[in-house]
Amino acid sequence: AAAGFSTRLITAPLDLLKIRLQLSPPPLSSTSSSGSRVASLAASVASREGAAGFFKGNLSATYLWVTYAAVQFTVYSSAHAFLSGLSDDRSSGPGHFLPGGLSPGAVAFASGAFSGLAATAATYPFDFARTGFAAAVEGRSGSLVGFLAGTVRAKGLGGIYAGVVPAMMSIVPLMGLNFLAYETLMQHLSAQPASSTKNKNVNAGLAGALSGGASKLLVYPLDTVKKRLQQESFQPSSPRRYSGALDCCRRIVVDEGAAALYRGLGPTMIKSMVSTGLTFAAFNATKAVLVSEWERREGIGY
């Protein structure tokens, strides 16, 4: 929870720019660069909405990040311990159990994928509200509860879960690859001669940044599809444009070109690397403090 809270405060502006770009229409000029569109959007938000505009939807996003991180790390630790325990019990060495075995990398991937599914299911309405506030949806209450209640009245309970299918589809490879790359990089960095407990948090931040950026790049189109489906649910009176996730992806490619699936990728990559790096670093630092305090109270080592 501490990791999610601290990371959200730092990356909120990048998150808002990414969502606005994903939901924006195609640029009028095909020659305009991604960087210029990001700069133009940032300038527009600053002039029209002020500095506070970069933090629209921050309350719902903070709930999302805090709850998501708490569920994710808890489930990951439990799943990893469970799968590793099976490996130790059913074979002569860790990392292999059942016919064919399951490597440590597969354990990390499976644990990460399952933790991502659990966290997404637990927090999806917050994600929906974050997108709505960031997109500056009109005609809805400014409060989190009011926004969600208004959507349920207009679209039913399923309205606040618009886009959940591509979200679930993307979270499995995203979190699976994220934790797999993180565990692999941490093993490599920890084996270096200069590695020590003192710089473990730095290593965690570096490994988290690299793994977060790589995994996000691979699944980014599904995130764009999710945001478009969420946006459609914000319009209670308009007919449905997309029949589902696959139709949404097809229509984006046909109407706007395949590059539209990657709109907003620039700030997303920066945000993903910064947020994932900070999250892992903050998680390791907070965990170290809590474990140290627990050991002190239990009299371990004294």
TrEMBL record:
Name of one Pfam family that matches: Mito_carr
Transmembrane segments: 160-182
Membrane topology listed for this record: Multi-pass membrane protein
Subcellular compartments: Membrane
SUPFAM superfamilies: Mitochondrial carrier
Domain of life: Eukaryota
PROSITE patterns: SOLCAR (PS50920)
Principal location class: membrane
Solcar repeat coordinates: 1-82, 103-188, 199-289
Family statement drawn from the similarity comment of this UniProt entry: Belongs to the mitochondrial carrier (TC 2.A.29) family.
Protein name: Mitochondrial carrier protein
Source species taxonomy: Eukaryota, Sar, Stramenopiles, Ochrophyta, Bolidophyceae
